[in-house]
Amino acid sequence: MSLDEHPTIARLRDRPAPAPPPLLDQAWFRAAALEAGADDAGALSIDNPALADQRADILRCFPETRVVLAIVCRMNEAPVRSSVRSIANAEFHEGYDDVNAVCRRLVRRLGEQGIAALNTVAAFPMEVQEFPGKTWVVGHKPIAEAAGMGRMGIHRNVIHPRFGNFILLGTVLIAAELRDEAKPLDYNPCLGCNLCVAACPVGAIGPGGEFNFTACYTHNYRDFLGGFKSWVETIADSRNADDYNSRVEPGETVSMWQSLSYKPGYKAAYCLSVCPAGEEVIGPYLDDRRGFIERIAHPLRDKAETIYVIDKSDAQDWVAKRFPQKRIRIVRAAVSPTSIRAFLFGLRLGFQWRKAKGIDATFHFRFTGKETAEATISIKGGRLDVRPGLRGEAGLTVEADSESWLAILAGRRHPLRAMATGRLRLKGNRRLMADFRRCFPR
């Protein structure tokens, strides 16, 4: 039988030509999302400038994309506020299941109307083979911001004008045309109350907008991918069971087992718990601020728990100073860069702004060998600037073979050995290297 004689092809031979993508307005997309179970939604054209840095990845994932729809699903507030983290974690995970179910339901209903669409997963699974690079398909937060679903608070979570930060986000890619763009919110619901600053057990959030990603990632995501990698390395380094048990307490092992069996558990996320912003959330805070803080923030502050930090980091100092009732557990860095590009990108994530106070220095980095790159790194006033190329005068110039530098960062090679073999050269004020290392403990 030839292909043309196949019964399916014969039946569909005279089917009408595909219709062009429909032109639909903002209200239509929002109504479709709400009908599918979302609590709010906003649509953007793929050509929206806010999507410029994600457009290539979106189109790689779903080339037919013409509309990007931001989905908001509300969480239950009380479980997230609980100091019993198993309760809060169950709410997070069940909420993510809801987001994925809503997006999947929407994709099905659009398909029934002849509109192709794709659900980008709200949380896990991700493209983990890219770790420690970009593992997510789309960045839900900037899309939600651009679509008017809220604004980022100083704790780096999107705050919805009605629901506050008790929301989870999803994104649906749609093969349709958009008549009118959603507009970003014209104000920020964040109150600037700094409760998230006070509640964060590792001091990752600064009142001036600073954010220590590494501190947050090391503790809050201890049972996620980076912490799991660190745990496996600890197992590999242990000589026997007794040695392992001297390195890892029974509760840590059981916590990792639970996360592997029942989805990973967040260690804190207290910044969400204490946030009072949002029209439907703010009432108890306005009625009795002192009472709100005593009921919500103080149980988190006073909770006796283990806090995971990197040695000589801002987080270690913060816990010792602010939370003496919490126990410090020093762990190795969860992520080690596997490329020079990842190293330069990761500097912004690992920068310890408190350790950087008093430093005023410019560094030139020149990498040779397998991966070549040049960069200028400036540290001044507790702030970091990383720019490509060699700019201005440098107090210290670092020239390194790229593979050797990555091996030094991973602890596989000693810097002095690299210098002895000519794979690492320092030119200028070598004492500045100690300042640099202080800002990026590992």
From TrEMBL:
SUPFAM superfamilies: alpha-helical ferredoxin (SSF46548), SCP-like (SSF55718). Pfam families: Fer4, SCP2. One of its GO terms (molecular function) is metal ion binding. Keywords: Iron, Iron-sulfur, Metal-binding. Residues 181-210 form the 4Fe-4S ferredoxin-type domain. InterPro entries: 4Fe4S_Fe-S-bd, 4Fe4S_Fe_S_CS, SCP2_sterol-bd_dom, SCP2_sterol-bd_dom_sf. This is 4Fe-4S ferredoxin. It comes from Zavarzinia aquatilis.
